[in-house]
Write a structure and sequence with these properties.
Rossmann fold, two-stranded parallel ribbon, globular
């Protein structure tokens, strides 16, 4: 029997998982928010469906026919997890043991004043987004326990990768070096997210939770400075967080200060990170950025 993955939300992280499984011969189906994007997915060998907070999947039973694995990256909203709200009963009807992966966030741990957190620590989210994630995780694990589904949660650190990284931020002129003494963030390259999810698919452990981050929680201003060095440009001046003008959304990211342990994905899933720190990740992305710059200069 051919395995079939259904993705609720074919975004930055889930799409890479889907593409790698499709190369291995899996059938892939998934959702996007617009009919135009759905038509594009169809040309790429993916069975597409439209789904949103207020738009359930049409004919969901047909959409889930033959599905062996489900990956969920759709974020929760004010009314809870949209997938469970619209399609919890449909998922409950899947065969017992169906693998389900939920892409969550390390924001569920809240602020630890720079201390380390593991998967065993209490969930103490600082803000509304973190509280919604905690509630969504609980809803997924409850669904799994009630209906025999093999649910896993992947708590992702700050995601970067092609097209979404500090090099691009510097190149666009949007880079800032905001300094909050003692502040660190954990990060993860999208390829390492994909390999972790794939490792779980190969070695399911129903009810497991995994922190997905690299080895080096680092101050954000250091990442920008390193990206500037790679591009050969002067870094922007440092700005004191206490006086920096930030949007409420940008300021909220500084509410949490913690180091996240990734020991479990290494010990239990056998993951060897391709990009163990931001320096390795940005170095690997540099050639793509330089190629873009060369192409733009040729056009000019």
């Amino acid at each position: 029997m051919t395995n079939k993955l259904f993705c609720f939300g074919l975004g930055f992280s889930a799409r890479l998982v889907a593409d790698q499984l499709r190369e291995d011969g899996w059938k892939i189906a998934g959702t996007t928010r617009s009919a135009d994007k759905a038509r594009l997915l169809a040309t790429q060998g993916i069975e597409p469906f439209v789904f949103g907070d207020d738009q359930p999947v049409d004919d969901i039973r047909s959409a889930l026919d033959g599905v062996t694995h489900v990956l969920v990256s759709a974020p929760p909203g004010g009314e809870g997890d949209p997938v469970i709200r619209h399609h919890g009963a449909d998922l409950a009807a899947l065969p017992e043991g169906t693998w389900i992966g939920y892409l969550s966030t390390t924001g569920v741990y809240g602020d630890r004043n720079g201390g380390e957190v593991t998967e065993e620590d209490d969930l103490l989210p600082s803000g509304k987004r973190g509280r919604r994630r905690v509630a969504a995780e609980k809803a997924w694990f409850d669904l799994g326990r009630r209906h025999g589904l093999c649910v896993h949660s992947f708590r992702l650190a700050g995601i970067y990768g092609p097209g979404r990284n500090a090099l691009e931020t510097v190149r666009s002129g949007r880079a800032r070096r905001i300094v909050k003494p003692g502040q660190v963030f954990s990060r993860i390259h999208v390829e390492d997210i994909a390999q972790t999810v794939l490792a779980s698919i190969r070695k399911p452990d129903c009810g497991a939770v995994y922190n997905v981050c690299d080895d080096d929680a680092a101050p954000p201003q250091d990442v920008i400075a390193y990206a500037c060095g790679l591009l050969g440009v002067d870094p922007p001046a440092e700005e004191d967080f206490a006086t920096a003008k930030l949007s409420p959304m940008a300021a909220s990211f500084y509410e949490d200060n913690k180091r996240v342990s990734n020991a479990r994905i290494k010990d239990e899933l056998g993951v060897t990170l391709r990009y163990p720190d931001y320096r390795a990740g940005l170095m690997a992305l540099l050639d793509g950025i330089l190629a873009k710059i060369d192409a733009e200069q040729e056009i000019v």
